[in-house]
Specification:
- The chain has 500 residues and is of the alpha+beta class.
- It contains 7 helices and 25 strands.
């Protein structure tokens, strides 16, 4: 039977922390208990600052605990494009920052004594089509990265590829155990972590900031770092400057030994692989089947496409032991936003493009230096206030027109039927109840959950995600549990109930 959970979260013991029940004062408030939030908290603590970290759910259980577990400067075949679009200086900054992050993660693991299946190895990007990987290798090499043209046979994948590029000495780890180690080290050194303490408001207060949680508790700080997947609410307008994307993963055991290298395809559909130590020599993790959050009618087909790919490549039938999905955001110019949010007292980090273990580590260092008033060599390329080039502006306009169409047409989604008398176990979707559209789901214990399927961020209609049993917003990427609880922002309030 396949477990609907990240293989990492299913094989890690994350520490638990209390709910915030008293007001707090501190030097720095960090909002978000994923990779960026925890790393930033550790960095600031090491500089002698007092830090309070608030997490809306459980630390490490959302995007950071659902990653592939690759810490690498190889982000697909991107460097030739970055050079052409942004010039050598910015391409160089991005490349160097991410390669240094690989070493930075290893240094943290060693110094803090974190047991997280850390290993070094090659990472390959390959093409089965017309992607020019010869130039990609040349540009990456010129930018100082450990990149080389490679024979596709070196990957160990039983596929026919036209070309490949190898990045040497990249990093693999168990992300949930890494996050647990960061949290444990931070709290052991006096850091304050509070879970189930969702921040709903953040405002300037004198020379600092004041945050309020859904339960009405306050935290007053000199600085605030918003390290949620996307800044919550309308902070900095980043909901309109980025697009939400969902990818899917499976963990399988092959009938033969699995490839030991990391691989990713340069051509669509993306297929990313890495060894799965917990599955033994035949253990393999496959990630891909990307689509915009809320843009897939039945995400079960996304999971099945990964299974079908494994079956085709290895000529066998596999049953995944785990399957899961992760959400991330992309920016129109392919570079993350990190730094001071326009019109807000908060520092932010978002738009990691599915490479959060390296980009997020870079972001944490940049956020630390911003708090301390230090110069950082990566501040220009990650500038959180940039508008971008003409191509970026055109992309923003296009994306927001799409959001407008989604908002206008979303309430016309297909209704599964009238009334709620026959919502089958494991079934969810939109139903007509006395002329009103109701979102309903019957869980595996037979309990019926009903919600008003309208996002509490800006009122966009929601779609039922059958593969993950969530309500997803295609406008700005908020996700909700069947009972309406917020899973991912920018929304901060749970879904309304039909009887409210």
């Amino acid at each position: 039977m396949t477990i609907q959970n990240s293989v990492w979260l299913g094989t890690a013991n994350l520490p638990r922390y209390d709910v915030l029940d008293t007001d707090q004062e501190t030097d720095v408030l960090v909002v978000g208990g994923g990779l960026i939030g925890l790393t930033t908290a550790i960095y600031l603590q090491q500089e002698g600052l007092g830090v309070v970290l608030l997490e809306g759910g459980r630390i490490g259980t959302r995007t950071s605990g659902n990653t592939t577990g690759k810490v690498t400067s190889q982000h697909g075949a991107i460097y030739a494009g970055l050079l052409d679009r942004h010039g050598r200086d910015k391409a160089q900054q991005y490349a160097t920052a991410n390669q240094e992050a690989v070493d930075g993660v290893e240094e943290l693991v060693r110094r803090l004594g974190i047991e997280c299946e850390l290993s070094r190895g090659p990472s390959f990007v390959y093409s089965t089509g017309d992607t020019d990987l010869a130039r990609e290798a040349e540009v990456a090499r010129e930018l100082g990265l450990p990149a080389h043209p490679a024979d596709p046979a070196e990957m160990g994948l039983p596929i026919t590829a036209a070309a490949a590029v190898r990045f040497d000495d990249q990093l693999l780890l168990h992300p949930a155990r890494y996050l647990a180690g960061l949290a444990t080290a931070f709290s052991a050194a006096g850091g304050r972590i509070f879970e189930q303490s969702r921040v709903t408001d953040l405002d300037g207060k004198g020379d600092g900031v004041e945050a309020r949680t859904a339960a009405g508790r306050r935290v007053v700080a000199r600085h605030a770092v918003v390290a949620t997947l996307l800044p919550f609410g309308t902070i900095g307008g980043y909901f309109a400057r980025s697009r939400p994307n969902q990818s899917h993963g499976i963990a399988v055991q092959l009938p033969v030994e699995a490839p030991t290298a990391m691989t990713i395809s340069a051509d669509a559909p993306t297929r990313s692989t890495r060894p799965w130590p917990g599955g033994g020599p035949s253990g393999l993790i496959v990630v891909g089947a990307n689509h915009e959050t809320g843009g897939q009618e039945d995400t079960n087909t996304s999971y099945q496409s990964l299974v079908d790919w494994v079956d085709e490549v290895w000529g066998t039938k596999v049953q995944p032991e785990y399957r899961w999905s992760a959400e991330d955001y992309s920016t129109p110019d392919q570079l993350p936003y990190v730094g001071k949010a326009p019109g807000s007292p908060a520092l932010i980090a978002t738009g990691m493009h599915k490479w959060g273990l390296s980009n997020g580590t870079v972001a944490a260092g940049l956020l630390r230096d911003t708090v301390l008033g230090r110069d950082n060599p990566w501040s220009e390329v990650f500038d959180a206030g940039r508008i971008g080039d003409a191509r970026s502006v055109a992309k923003l306009v296009q994306d927001n027109l799409k959001v407008g169409k989604e908002f206008a047409a979303g309430h016309l989604r297909r209704l599964l039927g009238p009334g709620l008398d026959h919502v089958e176990v494991g079934e969810g979707g939109l139903f007509d109840v006395d002329g009103k559209t109701v979102g309903a789901y019957t869980d595996l214990e037979g309990r019926l959950h009903t919600v008003v399927p309208v996002c509490t961020h800006l009122g966009c209609p929601l779609r039922w995600n059958q593969g993950d049993s969530t309500w997803d917003c295609n406008c700005h990427g908020s996700r909700f549990a069947p009972n309406g609880a917020v899973l991912d922002g920018p929304a901060t309030k749970p879904l309304a109930k039909p009887e409210d």
